[in-house]
Amino acid sequence: MRLKKLSATLFQNLWFNSCSPPTFATMIQKGIFTLSLFVFALTHVSAQKCDLVLRGKILHQENDQPIEAAYVWILETRTGGTTDQNGNFVVRELCPGTYTVTVQYLGHKEIRQTINLSGSTTNQTFKMQEESVALSGVEVHGHREAVQTTTAVSSLYGEALLQSRGENLGESLKRVAGVTTFSTGNTISKPVIHGLHSNRIMILNNGIRLEGQQWGAEHAPEIDPFLADEITVIKGAETVRFGPEAMGGVILVNPPTLPTSKKHLTEINLLGASNSRMGNLAASHTGGSEKIQGLGYRVQGSVKKAGNVRTPGYFQANTGMAEYNFSGSVGYSSKKLGIEGYYSFFNTEIGILRDSHTGNLSDLIEIIENGEPFLKPNFTYQINNPKQVVSHHLAKVKTHYHLNPELKLNFQYGFQLNQRQEFDRRRGDLNARPSLDLELFTNTIDLFLDHSKNSNWSGSFGINLIQQANSNVPGTGVTPLIPNYDMSNGGIYLMEKYLKGPLELEGGIRYDYRTVSAARFVGNDLQEADLKYQNFSAFMGGLYQLSPHFAFTTNLGTAWRPPNVNELFSQGLHHGAAAVEIGDPNLNSEKSIKWVNGLEYEGKRGTAELTAYVNQINEYIYLNPTGGTFVSLRGTFNVYEYLQANALFYGVDLSGTYQFSDRLNGYLKGSVIRAKNTETQTYFPFIPSDRMDWGLAYSFGKEANRITLSNLVVARQTREPEFDLSPAPPAYTLINLGYNRKIKLSDNQLNVGLQINNLLNKEYREYMNRFRYFTADMGRNILLKLNYQF
């Protein structure tokens, strides 16, 4: 207990009690010292008698996909277990010595390997090969590759993903420590990882980088969370793997793997919500061919409709939305060859809060001073101007071929078409015309070679190519906010990983070259620009199993990001955001170095994970409120400008679970982030405030019947920018209640969920909501969720 108290006190003094922001070098020194204390303490408290641990991961040799429910058995001790959804296994309480480990999975060759245990923990990765004989009814493998990285990774799947159904992607990911949202009202939200969002966070839809107009603060990701059976967040700088736009992290939205044998699964989700009177229906069907071994398919679709959102005191005018989506895939797998085709379509219409578009300067001042909208209509599903209409098409073809048991060649092509229209309140016939009408075409090519030698060495060498063409559709009657442009980017990278005993090491390097050509007419003047950017990025990381219960991870990575077209050339009213944005064509590329360290604990009754990070970004680009306003015939709007400064981001994420008894368990997660302009010693706008979420779950006899009570506590953001339209809102606390029941219906399963968010109907405003100046956030919301699988 004294050791824990000493470590906590030193950590607090080192990271949070300094009066001025530390330099990056100071942060590294303090981080090393703090982590050394943890390592020293934890490695000296573990016993040395028969408490050794064998941990590992079981993967498919064909595609590095994790194998769930593989059987791991130690012959000498007659102990073992099965792997989880991510292919991980653990065998505890082993004595020093030599053991024979057997790994079995139906339809694959058995692995038998001799392992010598001497340290406290040994890590092993086993890759299983498909049996050469055909086995009827055996699912061999799918097409999803495992996430293998030493940086901080969190995933939503199973029960946690089921509870998030009906929410958009941003809201779903708030269940992960260190992830918040940057929202525009209650229907538009973007995920924020460690204070970064938009073009600094890469989202992959089934392995294809999602390319829409993601630069906009009110441009939500064009993706349907219902298509996924797992959503993974990588919190480190991942530019080597994925390219410059991954400098803040990566979100992987993965659909279920396709079956390769006769198998059928249908799933229906039906949801309803009291607030906004939302209705949501989603269905999917997955099947495998009986005649052609290795052939599988999946189709999925969803529809969603909601009306005006209600705060505790009033309805918000024009805040309804409608959405319909579809996705489908078909694939074939054999021992050496795999090929998959995939298509998804996303379409949404979103109303923008009517009072965010004010008529004149006095109206703007009055609504901010009033603290709530003047227009308080009754409920309606009708959506009027201002609004957004967005559609997104994504198609991909992917194939892999095994040159030999140690080499696999992969090729992937993706095509995307994003169409965005933003409508403003205009006079006469102009009201039916969009004020912003954009079409974005994107082509991507990924070609890479994976290699693996035994279970120690693995890696990839590859190239990424991306080509984009953005067009402003004529007829808006407004000077385009951003110009037409063509963008090309080529990247080449190399990554290697080494695993031996309790140690895992990895590193990589990448080079990117980008060209941008832009043009537009402002009045009768043609404005053109041809820009070029290039840079290297690299990373190195490691994982070490300190003891049977503790593991330490560290990852140090450099990253860069060229300025986006909107940051360079925005010049006018951004209708969907209800703001005037001014770009700067002289902006330079951002360059950063991020260090992420994690300490993980896994015991019989509980788990805990502490992640500490520091991210120094030189020439950080941000949208800053000037404090000024712009008055036009369409109304009065706040003015923002893109600026550049050196920045320092640092903070911690904490999450954990504890099993108090067979029926009662609890969880806790929280995050603290600091972000400062190191040139002027001022704060950046729209940085998440400190928050903590904790809860208790009680099971009535069985896990299938459970009630959960949770509490979200959010502090006031006291680190505000110099100019803002109004002070940051006060701190708030929300209480949420949930009930879940699993009902067996013959061989099928019905999951029933009841959630009450903001149980006490508390009025609050979230600092990260751009409409906090005009209105409060959503009031009490009761959701009924039905999930049927057959």
From TrEMBL:
<dbReference type="Pfam" id="PF13715">
    <property type="entry name" value="CarbopepD_reg_2"/>
</dbReference>
<protein>
    <submittedName>
        <fullName>TonB-dependent receptor</fullName>
    </submittedName>
</protein>
<dbReference type="InterPro" id="IPR037066">
    <property type="entry name" value="Plug_dom_sf"/>
</dbReference>
<feature type="domain" description="TonB-dependent receptor-like beta-barrel">
    <location>
        <begin position="392"/>
        <end position="759"/>
    </location>
</feature>
<feature type="domain" description="TonB-dependent receptor plug">
    <location>
        <begin position="148"/>
        <end position="250"/>
    </location>
</feature>
<keyword id="KW-0798">TonB box</keyword>
<comment type="similarity">
    <text>Belongs to the TonB-dependent receptor family.</text>
</comment>
<dbReference type="InterPro" id="IPR036942">
    <property type="entry name" value="Beta-barrel_TonB_sf"/>
</dbReference>
<dbReference type="InterPro" id="IPR039426">
    <property type="entry name" value="TonB-dep_rcpt-like"/>
</dbReference>
<dbReference type="InterPro" id="IPR008969">
    <property type="entry name" value="CarboxyPept-like_regulatory"/>
</dbReference>
<keyword id="KW-1134">Transmembrane beta strand</keyword>
<keyword id="KW-0812">Transmembrane</keyword>
<keyword id="KW-0813">Transport</keyword>
<keyword id="KW-0675">Receptor</keyword>
<keyword id="KW-0472">Membrane</keyword>
<dbReference type="InterPro" id="IPR012910">
    <property type="entry name" value="Plug_dom"/>
</dbReference>
<dbReference type="Pfam" id="PF07715">
    <property type="entry name" value="Plug"/>
</dbReference>
<dbReference type="Pfam" id="PF00593">
    <property type="entry name" value="TonB_dep_Rec_b-barrel"/>
</dbReference>
<dbReference type="InterPro" id="IPR000531">
    <property type="entry name" value="Beta-barrel_TonB"/>
</dbReference>
<keyword id="KW-0998">Cell outer membrane</keyword>
